[in-house]
Amino acid sequence: MLKRYFPILGWARDYTRATFEADMIAAVIVTIMLIPQSLAYSQLAGLPPELGLYASVIPLLIYAVLGTSRPLAMGPVAVISLMTATAIGDLALRGTPQYTTAAIALAFLSGVMLLVMGVLRLGFITSFLSHPVISGVISATGLLIAGGQIKHFLGVKAPSDTLPEIADGLWRNIGQTNAASVVISILAVAFLYWARRGLKPVLIHRGLAPRLADILVRAAPVVAVAVTVILAWALRLDKHGVAVVGTIPRGMPAPTLPPFDPGLWKQLFMPALLISIIGYVETISVAQTLAAKKRQRIDPDQELIALGGSNIAAAVSGAFPITGGFARSVVNFEAGAATPAAGAYTAVGVALATFTITPALYFLPQATLAATIFVSVLTLVDLGAIRSVFTYSKSEGLAMIATMAITLIYGVTDGIAAGVLLSIGLQLWRSSRPHVAELGQVPGTEHFRNILRHRVETAPGILSLRIDESLWFPNARYIEELIYDRIAEDTSIKHVVLNCPAINHIDASALEALEEVNAQLRDAGVRMHLSEVKGPVMDRLTRSDLLTQLTGQIYLTHYDALATLAPKMTRDTLEQSRCETHR
Amino acid sequence: MLKRYFPILGWARDYTRATFEADMIAAVIVTIMLIPQSLAYSQLAGLPPELGLYASVIPLLIYAVLGTSRPLAMGPVAVISLMTATAIGDLALRGTPQYTTAAIALAFLSGVMLLVMGVLRLGFITSFLSHPVISGVISATGLLIAGGQIKHFLGVKAPSDTLPEIADGLWRNIGQTNAASVVISILAVAFLYWARRGLKPVLIHRGLAPRLADILVRAAPVVAVAVTVILAWALRLDKHGVAVVGTIPRGMPAPTLPPFDPGLWKQLFMPALLISIIGYVETISVAQTLAAKKRQRIDPDQELIALGGSNIAAAVSGAFPITGGFARSVVNFEAGAATPAAGAYTAVGVALATFTITPALYFLPQATLAATIFVSVLTLVDLGAIRSVFTYSKSEGLAMIATMAITLIYGVTDGIAAGVLLSIGLQLWRSSRPHVAELGQVPGTEHFRNILRHRVETAPGILSLRIDESLWFPNARYIEELIYDRIAEDTSIKHVVLNCPAINHIDASALEALEEVNAQLRDAGVRMHLSEVKGPVMDRLTRSDLLTQLTGQIYLTHYDALATLAPKMTRDTLEQSRCETHR
């Protein structure tokens, strides 16, 4: 029991020197990757850069105690940082203490929500975000974040939460462009892009193992940071209008209590919920993918608790909402992290950095951070996914495009809400008009197939229908009307046989409809039969009146039904040579 | 084409003297039933009684031209009248001209919505009201309406839209109780109740045909009206504090234009939509039931247009929203109505009544109308339905009780909204945790069944799973986790075969999950196979990358899959004596 809520009690017992070494190597690599990221995502959230570092210490220790994923690397991520900026940007001005307080409250609220969801085992809620919705929102957010960096490249200030805001902000402020910022930005973006695309093949060509090359490439942002810091310091670029990070307090802050302000909490409720859900989806996706590669297991409900605990820790550290980062976790995994202890060592590394390197970061140009954000978020944008979803299903493709458009124009919250409603509406609509096949017997066999697709034999006076959908309220009336229409069209029908192998569930509305159909058919002199009803469906039907009222029989197979109702035709068809048939 | 929108062009050509006589007889009976109903439901809507008569003339003529149901009897009904009272009670005081104007606007708006829905063929929207929701809302509304009549029985004035209001209103006003009103109420309720329950057996015993007895019993309210009018006139009860209907203008009103007031329309939008949907559900249910009895067909989309046209006509007549009444239509059907012309003759009957009997209605006690409403709405309350839904499905039963409770406490609008959300949520939740069976071969057969329910043989290293649900976003991750868990538990597994006969649809999220499962299994050294994939599902999968990436094969039958992957075991099991098996 204790082990379920504190997975560390499980893996810590088997901790060996070899595991320690593997975890340490991974931790060093992730620390190098995490420091520029945490500064950058803090800037993206509109917060002082040191908060990104604070978000990367205690929360990582908490995750090491509570988490069930071995390679998951907790910390600030792009999408959650943008959602944070949007949520608190409505409540307070950037740079004010209220803004930071709101961010802390958001992390705390989101942490509590995740914790509660974990204890109540509500992780399944996230499954209501369909793949096209998540993919659409993430791609659109990537575009928004990338677009939002342009102001830093130009060295101007402008709001940038949505596409219209970005466009308007750039239009108004383009006159204030700072040439030095633009130069730094172009160089940094070009370097980072080349490191991602061009450096790896070179390293591999030089004889490095592809895995090692991949890890080294991830250190490129540190190089960009170091070079531009030196450049800015040597040329005193801060005197030439280049925005720099400025003074960062040294060391770790004292723990803070999140503000007790019910009014603020109420305003932050919906953003916190969405941040919790999106953060959890990101965490669980990467945790599951990496666990499956090694046939390990994660506990989705415990992951909610671990993520909740980490966010509460982020709030106590005076920081903003965080989650498990995809790219960072993959690097951790590839670098050989064997247990969650790797995350704890990373935390120690970041904590050390707050004491040592912070003075050097004074001259770090904001444009450099913008460049690292720009290059890394472009990988979030997956426009190919639209094409592949669209190819597979036009309606889902359109829903995805709508989700993206709404996210770009109105922001992430509205985008997610619209996407979820569209996904559910689409499925209800599809389910409300199920595929129904009229069946006939395939000559020479006991099989019954769609009369429109196959050459089959039907018996006069008997209507065989196969409904390819569970029966429930959105399609109950449709099925009812369909049967009435068929028997009104052909008054010779005396038997209706519903073939039910594809019916996984019958709800109370559909039961009512079936009882009504049975009664109406009885009045019209037609008997209703069922065939191939599944076990669980049958279990439930025995608790209803349908079986006692049914004018016909329930047959184990559709062949049994026809063999009883039209024995001669069925036998003759069965005896026809098999070579006449085609499927 | 013209015939589709004007069904009268179809049936009027075959109109004979015999049809005319049948329609006339039905029309006389329905007119006698409709006059007290229209006065009563107008009072229920909080409107002057003559508006009920106006609502029963031109709208009925319009329905005769546009409707496709032969026995449907249009006019004021209880539930819609209560919804009207609630909707406009929020906007204006009863008895003011604004109140009547709002009712007219509501009828107009609802008519336009129905018309638009009909032209766009959106009738399927109503299928999203599940049976437990409709049944719960109707029962709760019946209770609310019955409870709302108590104030008329006591002869006091009080608001009565929700249960708390009714309780509070009676508590405050019980001191003003009028003894004469109470006596009239008790007598009228007792008489009407006896007519329903006791009179019919007596009439049948006297030798009347049951159908005729049934129709005669429906005339009881007219008797109650006549007797209490004479009583009130003879004893001048209006001078003794008994509320009477008072002066009713003679004849029909001039046509009015509905108010052009965008502010009012905006406020009435949601109520009008719900009135449209509930009204349509009531109309279509009775129309379909009665049509099916004679193997006739109705056109659900044209019914929307007909109901819309009738409501616009109600607005032009200065009246309130109407729909097809259940009890009235059944009487019309039983009385032999052969075409929609019966409705037109009823309209003429009501129009004649507005010129002839209105002066006599001056002394009609409101308590009498309340008694006719009370006795007739009690048939709406079907508490047995809760029990039967609950027996069939606990979760749907609870959803129904919640819908009823919310309707009673907060009103019909909130009740419907909560009910729809609960129904959809329930199905999503159910669908998110589908039944998945691990399969084994039934000895002596080619059948594969659940290893937990049947004595079956399984092949080592092969996991056979049958998923009893379409694969879509609410269950995509659940299935993914389930497979990962299984292969993590048993590392000897080398093949996973998904048996797909119950999968009616695979959406883009589930496709993504299957591709992910396939890739993860590949990395873990496990091959994934599919068996018995349905035609329409396969058609769609061929447009995806899954089939090219799939590490295993797609087999026509599950037996084929196992015969290929574990030929010896499959053959040996097949050859075992059939007498060893049990299903």
From TrEMBL, chains A, B:
A GO-annotated cellular component: membrane
| InterPro entries (UniProt xref) | S04_transporter_CS, SLC26A/SulP_dom, SLC26A/SulP_fam, STAS_dom, STAS_dom_sf
- Localization of this protein: Membrane
- Superkingdom as given in the UniProt entry: Bacteria
Q: What is its main location?
A: membrane
Q: Which residues form a coiled coil?
A: none
Query: Domain STAS spans what residues?
Result: 452-565
Q: Does the keyword Glycoprotein apply?
A: no
Q: Which SUPFAM superfamilies match?
A: SpoIIaa-like
Which keywords has UniProt assigned to this entry? Membrane, Transmembrane, Transmembrane helix
Q: Which Pfam families match?
A: STAS, Sulfate_transp
The yes or no answer to whether the keyword Transmembrane helix is present is yes
Q: Which residues cross the membrane?
A: 20-39, 51-66, 73-93, 99-120, 132-154, 174-194, 215-235, 268-292, 304-322, 342-364, 371-392, 398-424
State the membrane topology. Answer: Multi-pass membrane protein
GO molecular function terms noted in the UniProt entry: secondary active sulfate transmembrane transporter activity
Q: What is this protein called?
A: Sulfate transporter permease
